[in-house]
Structure formats: structure tokens, C-alpha cells
Amino acid sequence: MIRRYSRLGIWAAMAAFLLGSLSACDVGGGGTSLADGGIGGTGVIAAGSVTAKGSIFVNGVEYSVAGATFERDGEIEVLSEVEQSTRVGMVLEVKGNLDEGGLTGQASEIVFHDLVEGTIDSSTSESASIKVLTILAQQVVVEDGLTKFDDTLTFANIDSSNGFVEISGFRRADGQIEATYVEVKPAGMFEVVGTVKVVNSSTFTIGNLTVTGSSMPALQDGDTVKAEGTSYNSGSKTLNATSVNLEAAGLSIDAADYAEVEGFVSAVSGPITAGETFLVNGQTVQYSAATKFSGGAAEDLLNGVKIEAEGSLVGGIISAEKIELKENLKLEGPVSGVSGSSFTMTYPDDLSGTTTVEVRVDPAVTEEDTPFADLLSGDYVRVEGRILAGAVGSVLATRFREETPDDRMILQGPVENTNGTIINILGVNIDAVGPDLSREDVQITLTEFFAELQANSSTLVKARHRDNEWDQLDLED
């Protein structure tokens, strides 16, 4: 039996384990088994996409794989130290032990996870860097620079692939799949993993896909399943399933000293208050007044926002000690131009006069107040997003809304480089001499400001422009 953890979204990252001990567990469905111990030799379970090879690097931790089992599509092999089975971008679940210091570990079990396998029915280019594929009626977002491919595919030629492909990645709140790895597969079994809506005892849907079968487990709306079949009708978007199996929701354990989950917030209709539970890729999470936020604030926790949450796991709920918002770019100001699926915002620049930032709209963007089609030059907007992989100087907007016009402009993001007292955020040059400098609203000196930037390259700076000058620079976690 293949063990799957799809509702986790396969995004429980390793960083949490660097901060505390996580107990080892049997994740095969037979209950939770926890092992004691400090971080040196601590049993761990971690999940995420492979970022580099050597042994394998998952979320910054290098795992030795010699002797570990690798499970994929029901087949298990024992890996050597130099192995060829895993690829950068693949989503893997790793069990093993973390070494003293938390930077290396020994893997004992590795499981590959995919979300959909089948033929590409259609492909739409949303921009020069983003394509949306339709596979088994699932919308698969492929991003140049973010999505990795096997040796036969590239971002440029994925449209022309007319065979079977397998997608490894993560489910967004709206059901779209963010692809991190794509591989050509021999034609065979169609496969999809997702959340169901029950029609009757022999039929359910996963998004726009209808799944029928003569032998189904008892299902309820919201269950996660893996459905497989050899017959798929792209016209009616119907899969005749020969196998349907229930999948675990959330993390595969319900108690741990420390755990982390990364993914998209779902199952909420508005701002989330302290103590209220919400889902991150199927895992129940809650925060408190003591929770530390970075890349944003509690009011930014909304449906569809991508976050990392880490803390203790008790009774199947992560009590978050820290929440990091992954879409950590924020822009406020007037729109200077609209073209296709993107718009521009032009900021004052202390070296060149002005710099224009391109904002591309994610296919799954949440348009809170203003449909993108109605956006006009001069509209004052607030944008949240991330740096677009493969497109230097561009922002991928995951959320935007029109606001009442203001005389200020806001630019928040990581400092890309410095030149003397000049800092550069998204290509905009700002002189740190002149503005009020602060660290989370506490005033600091120019020396302290640059010392912080040098010590922590991931520190964000929130810059405010008002009355024809940059008048405030605030360091954010």
C-alpha cells in the first residue's frame, strides 16, 4: 500500500525541527508513536520539495540517503549514497533522524508524492512566465523558474507535450495545483489526488472532474482521495475509476513537540482572530496573542494566503509560535499603466528619478474589490505578492484591491543590494539618510539599520513615500 499525505500539501518544512525536537512516528495509518530525545539524533518527519542534490536537500537540510527506502508508484528501492531517483522540484516526504545542529540528517524512508497524472488537454499562456495546463480537468499552474522539469521537457515546450505527464506540487485554496515538478510518463493509469464533493454512492467530483466507479468507499464531502482509472473522457471531464482510496487529512501525526506546515490558508471567509482555527493545506492551525508574525501581520491571514506556521502539535492542532507570510511583498500607490494581465506602479527613485515596477496577476489572484478588467491607470491599489521567478524585477500579485486615494506610497520587500547609504527594493533606490529609521516601529540609528541588514539578508524593509520624499524605513521580520 502506498502511504500518501496529500492533505498536508507535502509542505511541512524542516525549519521547525531546527528550533525544537520533533518525535518520530509511524505514519502508516496505525496511530501515533512518539520517540523522546533532543535535537541531536531526534527522529523527524519532514516534507517539502527537493531544492538541491548531493545527497538530497529538503528545506535547507541535507539528508544522507544511503540505505534509505524510496517509494514511488508502489515500488520501493533502497538508495545508495549517490542516487538518481530523486530530482530537484520533486515533492518528497522524508522520515529519519536529524543530527546535532539541525543542518544534516539521515533519511530512513522517502516517499514521492504527485497530485495528478494524465494527458494535457489544453494549455493557456497567462504571461511570458506563467502557463496554465488542464489535466484531468485540474488547473495546473506552471511557472518558469519555479517549476522544474525532467530532461525531456522545458517551460517553452510543455505546450507541445501530447503524452502522459505527472505533476508534483501543492494545492492552492481554490483547488488549482502549483506545479513544482513535471515529468513525462508512459501512457497508462490516470491518477488524481484531491478533495471530493459527493454526488451519490458511485459518483463524486474533484473540482471540475467527475469520477464514477462501481466500487467506492463510503465518502463524505471534504474527504481527500486518490482516484485511479484507465478511462478518461476529456469532453465530459469524466474519469471511470478502477480504484478510489481515502487519504489522510493534514499532518500524519497528531502530537509533536514541534511541527511546521507550509501552504495556502483555506476554509475561512474573512480575517482570522486569535484562537480561531483555520486550515493550511488540510492541517488545523491556530494562533494566539503571543504568536510572532513575519512578512505581515495577523490581519493579513486570509483565505488563499501562503504561509508557514510552526509550533507545538497537540490533539491534531498546531499552536503557532511563529507564522511567516510567504507573499511578503506589499505595494501601495497609483497604477501607472495596464497591459494584458499585468499593470505597473511607478515609484520615486533617489538615483534615477523614477523606477517602474511590473505587477503580473496570478491566475488564482483574489480580487477583493476591483475586478482586474476594470483596473485603470490612476487607480490607487494595495498589492500583496512575491517576486516572480524567472522574471527579474517583476512582482506576482496574489492579492490586490482598490483603496481610497492617498498621498503616500508604500513599498515593502527584501533589500536586493546596498550602495553606500542607498538600499534597493525591487529595483527602486532609496537613500537611508533622511527617512526616520525604525525596527518594528522602534527608532534606531543609521548604523543599527545597516547592521541589521548585514546580519540578516531576509529582513524586509517597509518604505513609505510622502510629501515628495521617502520619509520612513521600518525593518520587518
Description of the structure:
The protein has 477 residues and is mainly beta. It has 5 domains: 1-113, no CATH class; 116-185, Beta Barrel (OB fold (Dihydrolipoamide Acetyltransferase, E2P)), CATH 2.40.50; 190-247; 254-326, OB fold (Dihydrolipoamide Acetyltransferase, E2P); 329-476, Beta Barrel (OB fold (Dihydrolipoamide Acetyltransferase, E2P)), CATH 2.40.50. Helix content is 3%, strand content 53%. An 11-stranded mixed beta sheet has the order 28-29-30-32-31-27-33-39-40-37-38, with helices on one face. It has a 5-stranded mixed β-barrel with strand order 1-2-3-7-6. The longest helix is centred in the last third of the chain and has 10 residues, at 446-455. It is globular, with a radius of gyration of 23 Å.
Give a quick rundown of the structure.
This protein is mainly β. 3% of the residues lie in helices and 53% in strands. It folds into five domains: 1-113, no CATH class; 116-185, Beta Barrel (OB fold (Dihydrolipoamide Acetyltransferase, E2P)), CATH 2.40.50.140; 190-247; 254-326, OB fold (Dihydrolipoamide Acetyltransferase, E2P) (Beta Barrel), CATH 2.40.50.140; 329-476, Copper binding periplasmic protein CusF (OB fold (Dihydrolipoamide Acetyltransferase, E2P)).
**How much helical structure, as a percent, in the residues?**
under 10%
Count the domains.
Answer: 5
Look at the structure and give the CATH class of the largest domain. Mainly Beta
- Give the biggest sheet: 11 strands, mixed
For the largest sheet, list the strands in their spatial order. 28-29-30-32-31-27-33-39-40-37-38
**How does CATH name the architecture of the largest domain?**
Beta Barrel
Structural class: mainly beta
N- and C-termini, Cα separation: 43 Å
Task: Could you tell me the CATH topology label of the largest domain.
Answer: OB fold (Dihydrolipoamide Acetyltransferase, E2P)
Beta content comes to: over 45%
Cα-based radius of gyration, to the nearest Å:
23 Å
Poorly predicted regions are 1-42
- Write out the CATH superfamily name of the largest domain: Copper binding periplasmic protein CusF
